[in-house]
Specification:
Chain lengths: 227, 258
């Protein structure tokens, strides 16, 4: 069990050069968008990872509040950080791609806006955890649950909001070879993200255990002092 | 029935304090005026058709600003007079505390809107369409403010114990309330355009409000109890809600000993 994340890291390291080679040398160039479309193979997996860990963070936060579970708390922190990290990747690659194909980095497309808002929610989650008042674990957990519930609502809200503006075309159907490349990239990035979350969650659990050890030692010392 | 009675009692208490000093309503109302004047200065040059597109944004941005200001104050009163713990010890349902604070916030927001909408109508001629459908306008403002306050009250309660942490409330509030604000924006746009689907959008906001109040009520107890436990953190470091702060202080204390 202890070595699984490291095995995943090694697997990701081995798979990643193959991904790059496959994306740039063995996958046909998309007819409409040209070479710029290559960024799709990293952009889409990152977006999926971002959404996935947002949902995981929300669920883990719910378990944390319900069961007072430290394991869930550690997982929620790690997943929240992964969401922000993958979100940065999505929000950097997205506008680059948009600039090359739509001619503008920001179109206000429903997915774009909802991803950006999701990212903001989880940055707020990390900020509250880090700089919040003493009870910030609970506030942050409530925030994560709200964030996970908000994801579909935000998407729908932006969609009806966009009906008052012109629609922009998004990628249509893709040939099978491109899908295969996409899934290999997804596998590499997924292995990397799971490994990182795993390691971070283990570290967060240690930190929580250390905090409790400090409190226990302190209470003992205080009990001993007046005697 | 009991829940409603308790909610009303708690809300009446807050509203009575408010009626004595008018602190929240006056400051928030004046802030609304300031924001409207600033909007007027910034956007006065817009011509009619553009104005109409900008007005929904102005309405809901102003409500978002005023809401953040109000929410920081709603729980401040409990914090300043140290009545939060008493409130939690009182034989009332926790849900009643949430609903009463929600009601107070809503009352303040609505009284600000009563200034905001006519003010905008005065300064921006194209927003006078609002008066064509007063029923829809009232429903829209009430539903939008209700959703905003439902999210806001929850997190304001959580941050109630920390005076300097108000910036965190805005950091949380704006991303989380975007869905309801976006729906409200769409509905306002449709109201101005006389769109046939206006009431459909309004019922969607109502459904969203139900979801937000439900989640808020469900999470309120955990968030608020954490806040109440942590207020005497320095006297009892082992209290449940503040493990990290207690650990930090324990570590600091143990240094001079070793």
């Amino acid at each position: 069990m202890k070595y699984i994340p490291y095995a995943l890291l090694v697997g990701a390291a081995a798979l990643f050069p193959y991904c790059v080679q496959r994306v740039f040398l063995h996958t046909p160039i998309e007819a409409e968008m040209g070479t710029a479309q290559k960024i799709f193979y990293f952009h889409v997996p990152l977006a999926w990872i971002c959404m996935l860990f947002a949902v995981i963070c929300g669920i883990a936060a719910g378990v944390q509040l319900r069961r007072r579970s430290e394991r869930a708390e550690a997982l929620a922190v790690a997943a929240g950080e992964m969401t922000v990290l993958a979100g940065v990747g999505v929000l950097i690659t997205g506008p680059i791609w948009g600039d090359a194909t739509w001619g503008t980095p920001w179109t206000g497309d429903a997915r774009q806006v909802s991803t950006a808002l999701l990212w903001l929610v989880f940055v707020a989650y990390l900020l509250v955890r880090e700089y919040g008042p003493p009870n910030s674990e609970r506030i942050a957990a409530a925030l994560a649950i709200f964030g996970a519930i908000d994801v579909p609502i935000i998407y729908y809200a932006v969609k009806i909001w966009k009906t008052t503006h012109p629609q922009t075309g998004v990628v249509g159907s893709l040939p099978q070879s491109m899908w295969n490349t996409l899934f290999i990239c997804l596998a590499a990035l997924m292995m990397l993200s799971i490994a990182l979350v795993w390691i971070r969650a283990a570290q967060a659990r240690l930190a929580i255990a250390l905090d409790q050890a400090w409190i226990a030692a302190d209470t003992q010392q205080r009990a001993a002092q007046p005697a | 029935m009991r829940l409603l009675r308790q909610t009303w009692l708690l809300a009446r208490n807050d509203l009575r304090q408010e009626a004595r000093r008018l602190e929240l309503v006056l400051t928030a109302g004046f802030f609304t005026l300031v924001v409207v004047v600033m909007f007027a200065l910034a956007f006065f040059a817009l011509d009619g058709s553009v104005q109409r597109k900008a007005i929904p944004g102005m309405v809901w941005l102003c409500i978002a600003f005023v809401g953040a200001l109000t929410l920081t104050r709603v729980f401040d009163r409990e914090r300043e007079s140290n009545t939060l713990a008493a409130l939690l010890a009182a034989p009332v349902e926790r849900l009643a505390i949430y609903l009463s604070k929600l009601l107070v916030t809503l009352v303040v927001l609505l009284s600000c809107s009563a200034l905001l909408v006519p003010g905008l109508g005065l300064l921006f001629p194209s927003s006078q369409v609002f008066s064509a459908n007063p029923l829809a306008l009232v429903a829209l403002i009430v539903l939008g403010c209700l959703g905003y306050a439902a999210v806001g009250t929850l997190f304001a309660a959580g941050l109630a114990t920390s005076s300097g942490k108000n910036v965190l409330l805005s950091v949380i509030l704006y991303p989380l309330t975007t869905p309801v604000l976006l729906f409200a924006l769409v509905a306002t746009q449709r109201l101005l355009e006389g769109h046939p689907e206006l009431w459909g959008t309004l019922s969607q906001i109502a459904a969203l409000d139900v979801v937000l109040i439900g989640v808020g009520a469900w999470l309120f107890e955990t968030v608020l109890i954490g806040a109440a436990h942590s207020s005497p953190a320095h006297s009892s470091p082992a209290s449940n809600g503040s493990a990290r702060a207690a650990a930090v202080s324990a570590r600091a204390r143990s240094k001079p000993v070793n």
